[in-house]
Structures are given as C-alpha cells and as structure tokens.
Amino acid sequence: MDTQTLIYMFVGASFALYIGIAIWSRAGSTSEYYVASGGVHPIANGMATGADWMSAASFISMAGIISFVGRDGAVYLMGWTGGYVLLAMCLAPYLRKFGKFTVPEFVGERYYSQTARVVAVICVIFISFTYVAGQMRGVGIVFSRYLEVDINTGVFIGMAIVFVYAVLGGMKGITYTQVAQYCVMIFAYMIPAIYISIMMTGNPIPQIGFGSTVSGSDVYLLDKLNGLSQELGFSQYTSGTKSTVDVFFITVALMVGTAGLPHVIVRFFTVPKVSDARLSAGYALLFIAILYTTAPAVASFARVNLIETVSNAEYQKLPTWFANWEKSGLIAWQDKNGDGKIQYVAGAPFNGAPAFAEGDVRGNSGERVVTNESTANGNELYVDRDIMVLANPEIAQLPGWVIALIAAGGLAAALSTAAGLLLVISTSISHDLLKSNLAPNINEKQELLAARLAAAAAIMVAGYFGINPPGFVAQVVAFAFGLAAASFFPAILMGIFNKKMNKEGAIAGMLVGLIFTFAYIVYFKFVNPAANTPDNWLFGVSPEGIGTFGMILNFVVSYAVSKVTPPPPEHIQHLVDDIRIPRGAGAPVADH
C-alpha cells in the first residue's frame, strides 16, 4: 500500500474517532459544555490536559526551532515544563476549590466587580486568539503536505473538523476527544524518534541516543552536529546567541504564562475534587514529559539528516520528500550559481518568504522557480522550521505507515489545543459577557446556544489568523504566553494569596500589563519590524520575553493602586481564606 493511501487511512480514521466521541458525549447542559459536569477522572484529565497543552507548537514547532537555533531553543523546554509545576503548586487546587466555570468568573467574583470580569474576558480573547493562530497554521501545514492541498485549504478543513466536535460536544466532548488525541500524538512522536535513534546511534531510547556516539564511529552526535553547522557558516549548535537577560525573560514569560493560560486552567474545573486537581496536574506533567524530553533528540536527528541529505546535493538526485514538501511552499531552492547543486549555508536565501509561480514552473536545474528576488549571500535553500518534525521520517526514509502516523499526530496536536482555546473563547463570551452582564435573564438553553454560536464565530476568526499568521507557530504561541503572563497571572496569584488586593488594583494591573506587552509586540513585529534587534529592545528583552516585564509592571501597579484605594469587603477577605486554607486546618489567624 502506498504512503499517500496510508495517510488518508490514518488521518481519516483519527477524524472519525474524534467526531464519534463528540457525538457520543454531546453536551446537554451548560455544566457539561463548560466543565464536563466536573466528573472527569484525574488520569483522563491529565491526558486531556497533556493534549490541550501539547499543541502544534509543542509537536510541530518546538523541535523545529531547537533544530535551527540549538541551545537557545531550550527556553521553550524550561519555560513550558516549569510552568506546569507552578500551576500544580500555586493555582490549580485553589481555583478548583473556588468552583467556578471560567477564569473571568474567578476574577469577577474575587475582585467583586463586573468591570474586572469584562477586563478578564478581553484578556482571554486576546490571549486565546493569539494562541489559536499558531494552531490553525499548524493544521494548514500538515494538510498542505499530506493531503496535497495548499495551506489555506488545509486551514478550512481543520476549521470544519474543530467545528463539529468543539461546538457539538463542548468540554465533555473535547475532554474525551483529547484523551484519544493524546494517545495518537504520543505514538506519532515517539515511534519515529525511536526508529531514527536506532538508525543514527544504535540506541532505542532517543533521550539517551541524543547524547551517544554516531553508529560506526566514536564521534558524539552533538559534536558531529557542531562540526556540520560550523562548516556551513552557522554558529555551533550547542552554543547560544541570545543574551542571558533575554533567555531569563523568555523562560519566565513562558513559565508564568503557562500558569495563566485560561484554556489550561479551565481543565482543572472538570475534576470531582480539589485533590484531583493536583493529581491531574501531576499526571499531565508526566504525560507531557514523554514528548518534551524527546524533543531535543528529535531536533538534533532532524538537523543532521537535513544537512547530510540536502547540502551540496544535486537537485535531480534528491529523494522524493524534497519535491513533496516543495509543493507546499515550505521548502524552496534557487540555483543562484547555476551548478545544479543546493548550496545550504548561513543567511536568508530570498527577500521574504518563498512564493511560487502558477503552473509549477521549473528552472534550468529542475527547481521550482522562486518569484522573490534572491539575496546577495550564497545560501540557496529556504526551509520553514515548522516542517522539521513532520518531514523527519521522510528524510530518514522510514516506512510509509510511520509517515502516515506522524501526519495524524500533527493534526491531533493542533486540533486538540485549537478546540480547547475556542471553547474558552465561547464560554467567556456566553457565560461571562452575555449571561453575567448583557443578558442576565437568558435561560440555560439560550446560554448553551449562545456558547455554540460564539464558538462558531471564534472558529471563523481563528481560521483568518491561521491563513494570515503573525509568525511561525512557536513564536506566535510565545506571544500568547507573554500576554497571559502580563495580564492573568498576577491577578490570579494575588487573588489567591493576598486577601488585601482589591478590584482597583487588579483592574489597573491587568490593563497596564496587557496594553504594555501587546503594544511592545505589535511595534516590533508589525509597525517597525526593521527595528526588531537587540540594540533597540528595552533592556535587551525581545518581544518573546517582554511578557515578564509586563508581569512585573502588573504586580507593581496592582500593589501601588491597592494601597491608595479602599480594601476589599470583609466577605471577600474571608472568601480568600476559605480558598487557601484546607478544611480542618482551623480558623485563620487574624492579622496583627
């Protein structure tokens, strides 16, 4: 059976499974739609959280970015996994004990203010749409290669699939769909990694193979990769180029952004008990670690295979994987010196992203013609870093069923997180904005309808951002984490641990953190991208790490404003004590 047929079978079977689960677990009430009636087992919730968390950024793009930037890519590993520890220890149990449907609902009730709730809804929408843009792009990338359609068509197909199981099943449907998606994606990630580890190092455990010698030699894999990188004019793979300050700020932004992401937090409202929330976080960390500890190995394997396969190779003799990915526009070659060979060295090959002429026009050496003007340097190859994980099995010439499996896994990763984000957007609009503010008299049936309509509208907007993304997948997601770190995290943390924090302080802090961070990112990424260099950054902090600075501003403004405005009412302060202090621990000691 040929590879393309296997891809259709694997992807089609996985889609049928997801839609079948959505129909089986269709939500019939707002409680089922928002939090699955709080009846999900901790292990199942841990798997669902892992799937929700391991998005297209984790599955597709994280190893891709590590593959290209080497050691600096470790910020994603440290930040995202560290954030889960923070979430499990500082937030999840207390939010579950509070027992509300959404993060804006917690903010609104804790800060006794509908204004605070509306500000939180705005934060949710900003963060979730920024995040979902990366997921929809991931869907488009997978479809563009494996179903042989363009990226935009792939985004539309992904929108249709998400529409069915997110709008129909709500959190109940999404939870059990995500359990299935976790199983699909972890097998899809690990099987190629194990295969390639055996082929390259003789060790079946990728995490160990990553630090082993290459088969048939006494050269370590990373030493070989360092040598290959330097020969082509790149910096050493194991050396970093980012400043220590920027690495720290990016890592912290990703870490606290994890703990402030609304679509992750809402997962802990779906378990029966407070203790189950902490257990869920522990299981999720275990399930996530399987992929995250493998990613550096996958990145290294992919980089070595790419360089050895493509660099200085004759185009006419390249394996079929190159032409397959060339059709998607995610890899391109321009024969600048006319020798028919691919010169892959440091530097951008084209002025902008590659665009191809109609009719699959070919050049003298058989290459697909690039219509953008070439740059002066000698690099002839453009590679979109988001293809590295997906193309890796093909580059390594693994069996067709492994390639089909990774196609299904990439789609599972992107669709699972997209569904969670879209549900958060819809519940924030229907429950926090409509039911709690604009139309408090609507009944449960009307609220459920509003949630589904909001989800449908959100899918349309998400599709637009998937077609017109503001960056590659991991970068877009990093912006979402920065926005979450600057807006939600301080308000939630102080709402749990500082009973004197009032509504004025929380609202002011959220607005200042969100506006500052959003403006900084927009300026350097859209308004003046030419200025996006370390010399122009504030204190040397990149847009990916500026969320940490926004978080600090949030804390400072919140604290300062709370000191010059009235303290929270007594019943709110008692509510904070009830959230934080375990039952049976005795009455809280009065402040002196």
Quickly describe the structure.
With 592 residues, the chain is mostly helical. The protein contains 22 helices and two strands. It has a two-stranded antiparallel sheet with strand order 1-2.
What does this entry look like structurally?
The structure is a single chain. The chain has 592 residues and is mostly helical. It has two domains: 3-302 and 405-469, Orthogonal Bundle (Hydantoin permease); 313-395, no CATH class. The protein has 22 helices and two strands. It has a two-stranded antiparallel ribbon with strand order 1-2. Helix 1 packs parallel to helix 17 (400-438). 55% of the residues are buried.
List keywords for this structure.
592 residues, mainly alpha, Hydantoin permease, 2 domains, two-stranded antiparallel ribbon, 2 strands, disordered C terminus
Assign the CATH architecture of the largest domain. Orthogonal Bundle
Output the CATH topology of the largest domain: Hydantoin permease
* Overall shape: globular
Strand order of the largest sheet: 1-2
Structurally, the number of domains stands at 2
Overall pLDDT level = 79
Task: Show the helix and strand layout.
Blueprint: H1 3-24, H2 30-35, H3 42-53, H4 56-69, H5 74-98, H6 103-110, H7 114-146, H8 151-201, H9 206-209, H10 221-231, H11 244-260, H12 262-265, H13 274-292, H14 295-310, H15 320-327, E1 331-333, E2 381-383, H16 388-395, H17 400-438, H18 444-467, H19 473-497, H20 503-527, H21 546-563, H22 570-580
Antiparallel strand pairs: 1-2
Helix pairs in contact: 1-8, 1-17, 3-8, 3-13, 4-7, 4-14, 4-17, 4-19, 5-11, 5-13, 6-7, 7-8, 7-17, 7-18, 7-19, 7-20, 8-17, 8-18, 10-14, 11-19, 11-21, 14-16, 16-17, 17-18, 19-20, 19-21, 20-21
